[in-house]
Specification:
alpha+beta
Length: 199
């Protein structure tokens, strides 16, 4: 009888140990699971080409808005760009006032080996109080009106609000423009454009 109860106790202890190990391992697997779209509260897609010209310049992608309830913490723009070899206007993104660019990652022009992508991205700040745009980010745009050979690439732009716990605004829009042309002796950058309402 004592021998039987001894076995029962050992069996009970074994079951408890196995249960604890299983529980710990299960929780460990849960914590290692990747978080997908953790704080994403909105995704906006865009698709724009230089249809008013003969150029094959275009950009398409998504704008990811991160935050909680009524506060935006972070905006990420992920865009594929394709710039025509004859286009000196390239692609430009306009960032609204009260938002700062924290980082830009670019692979353009990825089809041309030996070229540095950092040399094909420029950032311009607007000092005017009347404008709704704070920053302009240009990809493959040549202000000397000479083409740079065009190409394709991926651009990732990270934005953060000037003030923490930024509340969404109806006027919060990302501006995008593509293309260039010379008409009647006038050179125009951004022949085609769109404004993407973010919230």
């Amino acid at each position: 009888m004592k021998k039987k109860s001894k076995y029962l106790i050992l069996l009970f202890i074994f079951i408890v140990i196995v249960s604890i190990l299983f529980f710990l391992n299960f929780n460990k697997k849960e914590t290692n699971e990747p978080v997908v779209n953790g704080n994403i509260i909105q995704v906006k897609n865009f698709d724009l080409d230089a249809r008013s010209t003969n150029l094959k310049t275009m950009t398409e992608g998504s704008i990811f808005v991160e935050g909680e309830k009524e506060h935006i913490d972070h905006i990420k723009i992920v865009a594929h760009v394709e710039i025509d070899p004859a286009d000196w206007g390239g692609v430009a993104f306009y960032i609204p006032d009260q938002w700062s660019v924290s980082s830009i990652t670019s692979s353009y022009p990825e089809s041309q080996s030996g070229l540095k992508p950092v040399e094909y991205v420029s950032t311009w700040m607007n000092s005017s109080d009347d404008s709704s745009w704070r920053t302009m980010i240009e990809i493959g745009r040549e202000r000397n009106y000479k083409t740079n050979g065009g190409g394709t690439g991926t651009i990732v732009i990270d934005l953060i609000p000037d003030k923490k716990d930024k509340s969404p605004s109806e006027s919060l829009k990302i501006g995008i423009e593509v293309g260039s042309e010379e008409k009647d002796g006038k050179r125009v950058m951004g022949t085609d454009s769109v404004e993407v309402p973010v919230f």
